Amino acid sequence: xxxEKSHEDSYIVMAExxxxxxxxxxxxxxxxxxxxxxxxxxxxxxxRGPSGCGKSTLLNLxxxxxxxxxxxxxxxxxxxxxxxxxxxxxxxxxxxxxxxxQFNLLPxxxxxxxxxxxxxxxxxxxxxASRVRARELLGxxxxxxxxxxRHPAKLxxxxxQRVAIARALANDPPIILADEPTANLDSGTSRLIVELxxxxxxxxxxVLIATHDEAIAAKADLILEMRxxxxxxxxxS
Length: 237
Known about the structure:
Layout: H1 3-9, E1 11-24, E2 27-40, E3 44-48, H2 55-62, E4 70-75, E5 78-79, H3 85-94, E6 96-99, H4 111-122, H5 127-140, H6 157-168, E7 175-179, H7 187-199, E8 206-211, H8 214-219, E9 222-227, E10 230-231
Parallel strand pairs: 3-8, 3-9, 6-7, 7-8
Antiparallel strand pairs: 1-2, 1-4, 4-5, 9-10
Helix pairs in contact: 4-5, 4-6, 5-6, 6-7
């Protein structure tokens, strides 16, 4: 393996000139504006900045929920900037786990069913194997077995976020994208969720967290600062 290839393999995300603009009436909003950075593998990265600075849009680009207008974006060896159709869907299912501020659990499904669902979409495990893994993941995030069959409405915010993290891990993705994961939680529960996200680092998993929470930033290995769609403190250069 060449030194150049080895150097690239040490980064899970590489972006060059990444740009995403939106039109709001006659105004063009530069949500992500010519951004370049590299994120090393197995780190906790805090993406910090005021509301509207482009944090969520950048997460959406990395997660292939939005497509860039221009620029290059590679995640775990996948050229995300050129994905479309089935390739885009496969990437989201296998490479990225999502944790959202509003939890985004399906209300009609129990906790364990919410976690098994991503595995059913990939077809990589039998129903029995999926449930075994879901139980293991729910146990790992600290949700007692008595609560596995409860629906989201019967769970507290912290419990719902634990289920959401277990769901994000279901297909064993190399990168987790968390958008304000503690915004709707009290300080004690927030601390536990941060510790849980931190524990993923031991598996060489990368966790990118968009946040206003200074406690998260204090525990991160790396901080990216965004202002007006630009990184003012690029990483990995």
